[in-house]
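Translate structure to sequence.
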């Protein structure tokens, strides 16, 4: 998302969508690879309680392969970490135009306080969090919920891959739509696209309540719809924050929003203590998604009363409430960015 803000003016949406699309698409390969390593023979889980629809594995070969897979994943993460460190060292950093020394905590306090005092950010944050619940919980409960009525590991892996591909398509589609609307000087499109993806998450969460009765195809369709909306929402929300705060405060605003995703995992972990995911689980997710819909509507209204930067402006894309000399904070220093500077 941060990289996309440095791209050409009319290409920011597609860059953001492409980066997120790659992130979603990579998990499509992961699902296939996981099943090929852990359960290549598609051994079915043993049914311990047919009344409660609880399925567990007791096959020692599958259990051993599962522990081996974690070692493989650990090695992959180590390779990625080394790659990141190498890129960090060789990636060129442009020198700041001007520089002023400032205490690090003072800089952070000023930036964060201005972000948190913006109503548009609060509405975006609420939508980001509650729409994220549906997407993140859908990905986390793919097996725990799916295996309650589909004891087929290979099919569930195919569903996971299909959903990952849908998320990639959603991210790229929303990115393209953002660029198309921005090139036509259309204002207020970003929160409307945000609302569209929240509605998809809400509708799919409600449909998922009936997945156990409707069967495999219904489950596949609901999962793909949720991930499509989740991918599109992730791409659009980044551009919304960028439109609100400009280049200077976008990284901090996006970072704060991303930190709140841990609440989604807390909700998922808490729900697991009450049993396997079922109708009540998806009903709660639907209510969360509905709150995201309401927040998106509020954001649309805020866009009408608090306009953002002109989408046809080829300057540095600073918002109306920013100073002529905008700034960013890094390593305890205040970097001044001239308003006339092209991105």
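Result:
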């Amino acid at each position: 998302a941060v990289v996309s803000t440095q791209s050409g003016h009319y290409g920011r949406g597609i860059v953001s969508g492409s980066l997120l699309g790659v992130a979603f698409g990579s998990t499509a390969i992961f699902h296939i690879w996981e099943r090929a390593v852990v359960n290549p023979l598609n051994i079915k889980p043993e049914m311990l309680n047919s009344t409660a629809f609880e399925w567990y594995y007791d096959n020692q070969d599958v259990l051993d392969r599962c522990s081996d897979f974690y070692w493989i994943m650990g090695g992959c993460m180590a390779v990625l970490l080394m790659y990141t460190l190498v890129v960090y060292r060789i990636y060129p950093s442009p020198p700041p135009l001007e520089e002023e020394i400032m205490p690090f905590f003072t800089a952070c306090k000023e930036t964060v306080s201005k972000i948190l005092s913006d109503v548009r950010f609060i509405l975006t944050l609420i939508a980001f969090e509650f729409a994220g619940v549906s997407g993140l919980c859908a990905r986390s409960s793919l097996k725990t919920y799916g295996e309650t009525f589909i004891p087929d590991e290979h099919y569930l892996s195919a569903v996971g891959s299909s959903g990952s591909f849908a998320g990639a398509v959603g991210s790229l589609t929303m990115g393209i739509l953002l660029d198309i609307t921005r090139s036509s000087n259309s204002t207020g499109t970003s929160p409307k696209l945000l609302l569209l993806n929240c509605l998809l998450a809400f509708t799919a969460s409600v449909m998922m309540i009936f997945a156990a009765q409707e069967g495999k195809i219904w489950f596949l369709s609901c999962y793909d719809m949720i991930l499509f909306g989740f991918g599109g929402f992730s791409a659009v929300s980044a551009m919304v924050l960028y439109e609100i705060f400009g280049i200077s405060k976008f990284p901090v605003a996006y970072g704060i929003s991303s930190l709140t995703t841990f609440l989604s995992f807390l909700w998922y972990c808490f729900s697991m203590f009450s049993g396997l995911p079922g109708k009540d689980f998806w009903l709660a997710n639907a209510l969360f998604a509905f709150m995201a819909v309401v927040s998106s509507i509020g954001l649309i209204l805020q866009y009408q009363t608090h306009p953002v930067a002109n989408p046809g402006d080829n300057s540095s894309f600073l918002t109306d409430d920013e100073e002529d000399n905008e700034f960013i904070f890094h390593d305890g220093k205040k970097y001044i960015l001239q308003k006339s500077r092209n991105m």
